[in-house]
Specification:
Blueprint: H1 23-28, H2 36-42, H3 44-47, H4 49-52, E1 63-66, E2 72-75, E3 78-79, H5 81-91, E4 98-103, E5 109-113, H6 114-131, E6 138-142, H7 148-158, E7 162-165, H8 172-182, E8 186-190, E9 192-195, E10 198-201, H9 203-212, E11 218-222, E12 235-237, H10 238-244, E13 255-256, E14 260-266, E15 274-279, H11 281-293, E16 302-305, H12 312-324, E17 328-332, H13 343-351, E18 355-358, H14 360-369, H15 372-375, E19 384-387, H16 394-404, E20 411-413, E21 448-451, E22 463-468, E23 491-494, E24 497-508, E25 514-519, E26 523-526, E27 529-532, H17 533-541, E28 546-556, E29 560-569, H18 577-590, E30 599-602, H19 616-623, H20 638-650
Parallel strand pairs: 4-17, 6-7, 6-8, 7-14, 8-11, 11-12, 16-17, 16-18, 18-19, 19-20, 29-30
Antiparallel strand pairs: 1-2, 3-13, 4-5, 9-10, 14-15, 21-22, 22-24, 23-24, 24-25, 26-27, 28-29
Helix pairs in contact: 5-6, 5-7, 5-12, 6-7, 6-10, 8-9, 11-12, 14-16, 17-18, 19-20
Bound molecules: 5'-O-[(S)-ethoxy(hydroxy)phosphoryl]adenosine.
5'-O-[(S)-ethoxy(hydroxy)phosphoryl]adenosine (WTA) binds at residues 266, 311-313, 388-391, 413-418, 439, 502-504, 516, 519, 525, 530.
């Protein structure tokens, strides 16, 4: 393994510490039986039955896992996701329980009971049908954090349409790329949204996207800003559609277990965002099971995952997991520090949140703002804390444990990806001891390994590539393919068996706990958002006057990683402030403002191998002030010293 690729190993002493889960938690936990791992080990496909029993099936499945041609989970079974997330809870006598509690800007709140949710989902489902939406059609949803977003997802699921939610922070161009790629002829969006008290326009971005795609698009618009603008004949008003279909009762469409539930775009190693498809039976079983076993959710719990529904975390653990179990899910609009830095703790207290799930980048910000903010609230309703999205360092882990959990809540550090659908690595909070800084072992039924470049397992303590070596129900449809997956597939069926390469580097400790070290390749992870370096670079080289660009991640105290763009201007073009601005704008236009490079470094040349390949790893080391001992592989070693001094001047 190339050492330059991996951060320094931490001292082995850090591996020794294990904190037992608090006894008060274990007493009430959903999963407490230590034999669960052994049980899954003995017959791993059959054990996933447990996950499927958390759902109601329209047709029972024949086999848990069919391997005749690729992998089909719960083959022969059919079910409807909206029925599982809404109707069956009404039938269970819980129609007046809150399903969604929404916290909007400046203290505005809305609560939807399961009955309310059922009414609006049915009305919208009927309206979508009237617009012509049929099973398997792709409906794009471009909305901020408002209740209409999960309602639209469930309305699509009810009629068997496939939703494609695009994060509202993406630009119109990024929306158009995704709509064109999925040939989506329906777009549900809204006029705008509020962030830090300011209204942002969304509709004109949606309009631009619709103009840019070849297909014609039916647009439905939610009036969020409340300015009652007339939409004109080209648009459907969401509120009017729902009112016109009030009282509708739409039969949930039974979907085959491997029919698509949704698709979501993510950054891969190519310049184009890639569509990840998730199935109805496998995905829903996986997120319901992990919500039960890892997040320990029960129907009378209030769960708050502070992610955005526009990313996979929100799909799985704001919408589908908690609602499948009939719990109350909280969603909030805005940011954690507006109007005050105690906003989240105020929401936890007022809603008596039981389980709180957030990202390390948020925890680092809370730490910086100071413990007086959580300390001024009663957080005693909390029972379990979770993190996801990036590695959590021990300091942030301890702060979270002490100041938010009062040392009484276990922390689950959950590792997973858009492609995995739900959590794959985590401690079971009522069973396993916690180890600050390590995600934990693979969940029961999941098998993971850390391997070297030849695919051989590395020794404990050594770093390598994280691979998953058995299929799991939440796996994306593209990973389910048969023996001959495409050349760029991360799945291989070699002599060592089935292997999914995750693209993360990791090391495993003596107890089998996996410590994540970061992304391996051409993807960087900024504040928990995945960005493809090629996507960013192609936006930058599109700027007039730019010859070449390379993007890398630099260490950042709060965001974990920040975006550094190394840009070399064309001959006779000078490196000026306006050029720098154009570079930043190009990225904001192509992807979205959240992806804008924090630092743009102009350089006459990029470090390249003799064959002309840009050495991003060298740039990464330069960015982070690390020494480069050997530059002999470079065609232009002199550029290194020059760049080192430019970067030193900036920081
Ligand atoms: C990273 C988000 C360390 C990892 C659910 C992965 C993590 C990428 C963790 C997926 C964790 C996620 N510890 N790293 N607990 N969880 N990651 O697709 O690099 O947006 O490959 O899915 O986030 O990001 P994605």
């Amino acid at each position: 393994m190339d050492d330059a690729r991996f951060p320094q190993l931490r001292s082995p002493a850090a591996d020794e510490e294990r904190l037992p889960p608090p006894a008060s938690f274990v007493e009430q936990a959903n999963v407490t039986d230590e034999s669960i791992r052994r049980e899954f080990e003995q017959n791993w496909p059959a054990c996933w039955k447990r996950a499927a029993t958390l759902l109601d099936w329209s047709t029972p499945y024949d086999r848990v896992l069919d391997t005749d041609d690729g992998y089909t989970w719960f083959d022969g079974g059919s079910l409807n996701a909206a029925y599982n997330c809404v109707d069956r809870h009404l039938e269970a006598g819980r129609k007046n329980q809150a399903a969604i509690k929404w916290e909007g800007k400046l203290g505005e709140t809305r609560t939807y009971t399961y009955q309310d949710l059922s009414r609006e989902v049915n009305a919208l489902a009927a309206a979508l049908r009237d617009l012509g939406v049929e099973a398997d059609d792709v409906v794009t949803v471009y909305m901020p954090m408002i209740p209409e977003l999960p309602i639209t997802m469930l309305a699509c699921a009810r009629i068997g349409a496939v939703h494609s939610v695009v994060f509202a922070g993406f630009s119109g161009d990024a929306l158009a790329t995704r709509m064109e790629n999925s040939n989506s002829e329906y777009l549900l969006t809204c006029d705008g949204y509020y962030r830090r008290g300011t209204a942002y326009d969304l509709k004109s971005k949606a309009d631009n996207a619709c103009l840019a795609v070849p297909q014609s698009v039916e647009q439905v618009v939610v009036d969020r800003l409340g300015d009652d603008r007339s939409l004109g004949d080209d648009y459907h008003d969401y509120g009017d559609l729902v009112a016109d279909h009030e009282g509708a009762d739409v039969d949930p469409v039974a979907r085959d277990a491997d029919d698509d539930l949704f698709l979501i775009y993510t950054s891969g190693t190519t310049g184009q965002p890639k569509a990840v498809r998730h199935t109805t039976g496998g995905y829903l079983s996986h997120v319901a099971w992990t919500s039960h076993a890892v997040l320990d959710l029960e129907p009378d719990d209030t769960h708050w995952c502070s992610a955005d529904v526009g990313w996979i975390t929100g799909h799985s653990y704001i919408v589908y997991g908690p609602l499948a179990l009939g719990a109350t899910t909280v969603m909030y609009e805005g940011t954690p520090d507006h109007p005050e830095r105690d906003r989240l703790w105020e929401i936890v207290e007022r809603n008596a949140v039981d389980v709180f799930y957030t990202a390390p980048t948020a925890i680092r910000a809370f730490m910086k703002w100071g413990s007086e903010h959580p300390d001024s609230h009663d957080l005693s309703s909390l029972r379990l804390l979770g993190t996801v999205g990036e590695p959590i360092d021990e300091t942030a882990w301890r702060w979270y444990y002490e100041h938010i959990g009062d040392e009484e809540c276990p922390i689950v550090d959950t590792w997973w990806q858009t492609e995995t659908g739900g959590v794959l690595l985590s401690t079971l909070p009522g069973v396993d001891p916690m180890r600050p800084g390590a995600a934990g072992p693979a969940l029961p039924g999941v098998e993971a390994d850390v391997v070297d470049a030849t695919g051989k397992s590395v020794d404990p303590g050594e770093s390598g590539s994280l691979v998953v070596t058995r299929p799991w129900p939440g796996m994306a449809a593209s990973l389910c393919e048969g023996a001959d997956p495409g050349a760029d597939s991360p799945v291989t069926h070699g002599t060592g068996g089935w292997t999914y390469r995750t693209g993360d580097s990791a090391r495993v400790d003596r107890d089998g706990y996996i410590h994540l070290l970061g992304r391996e390749g051409d993807v960087i992870n900024v504040a928990g958002h995945r960005l493809g370096t090629t996507e960013l670079e192609s936006a930058i080289v599109g700027v007039d006057g730019v010859a070449e660009a390379a993007v890398v991640g630099g260490d950042h105290d709060l965001k974990g990683t920040e975006v550094y763009a190394y840009v070399s201007p064309r001959k006779n073009v000078s490196a000026t402030e306006p050029l720098r601005e154009r570079v930043r704008e190009a990225v904001a236009d192509a992807i979205g403002p959240f992806a804008t490079p924090d630092t743009v470094v102009f350089t006459p040349d990029l470090p390249k191998t003799r064959s002309g390949k840009v050495m991003r790893r060298y740039l990464e080391r330069i960015t982070n002030g690390e020494e480069l001992s050997d530059t002999s592989a470079l065609r232009n070693p002199e550029i290194v010293g020059e760049l080192e001094s430019i970067v030193e001047d900036i920081s």
